[in-house]
Write a structure and sequence with these properties.
The chain has about 190 residues and is mainly alpha-helical. It folds into two domains: about 45 residues, no CATH class; about 130 residues, Tetratricopeptide repeat domain (Serine Threonine Protein Phosphatase 5, Tetratricopeptide repeat). About 70% of the residues lie in helices and about 0% in strands. It is built from ten helices and no strands. The longest helix has 20 residues. The C terminus is likely disordered.
Length: about 190
């Protein structure tokens, strides 16, 4: 993986060499170098490591995706802002099953940095709503679900949103039990 600035330098060098090849009437070489420059520009905006991690994640290969993401040592230096958002989004998806606090931090950072697809933004907010719900922060979870509905323009996540809403209703309708006694020395349930 090249640094994002190296990719730009290589693209500019390829374009300069292509112009020189056009001047020398080597049209085929010039066209090839323009295509090479286009690849470097594409890789500047769409990082190859993140693409490979997405492919691993699509196959439910979490260790493989983590291995690819581990190759990015410093996301701030190696990635543009949107790619940093996807880096933290992928990190959040991978740790969501094991460490909800860390997953919440990753999802919040991904939302702050920006995600270009609205479905990804909706998925991040659904995950944050689930985390908020497990921590008994019902208002925050409801707000995040409303925002997720707005971002889910093609109703790809409608089932997940509906399932979260029913879980929230079910959790809200259960009577709360308080633990601990009113007086010293007495324990148990309070009725």
């Amino acid at each position: 993986m090249f640094n994002k600035n190296i990719k730009l330098v290589l693209a500019i060098a390829s374009i300069a060499t292509a112009v020189w090849q056009f001047i020398e009437n080597e049209i085929g070489n010039g066209i090839m170098l323009i295509l090479l420059a286009a690849i470097f520009v594409l890789l500047y905006f769409k990082n190859e490591i993140i693409i490979l991690a997405f492919l691993r994640l699509r196959k439910q290969d979490f260790p493989g995706a983590q291995k690819w993401l581990a190759k990015i040592k410093d996301p701030k230096a190696a990635l543009v802002k949107k790619q940093q958002g996807y880096y933290y989004y992928l990190q959040g998806l991978m740790v969501a099953q094991t460490d909800m606090n860390l997953a919440g931090k990753h999802f919040r950072k991904a939302i702050d940095l920006g995600l270009s697809m609205s479905a990804d933004l909706a998925m991040a907010k659904i995950n944050l709503a689930g985390i908020a719900m497990t921590k008994n922060r019902k208002r925050e979870a409801e707000q995040l679900l409303r925002e997720a509905k707005k971002h889910d323009k093609h109703n790809m996540l409608a089932d997940q949103i509906k399932m979260m809403e029913t879980n929230m209703k079910r959790a809200g309708s259960q009577p709360k039990q308080q633990y601990g006694g009113g007086r010293k020395g007495r324990g148990g349930f309070r009725r």
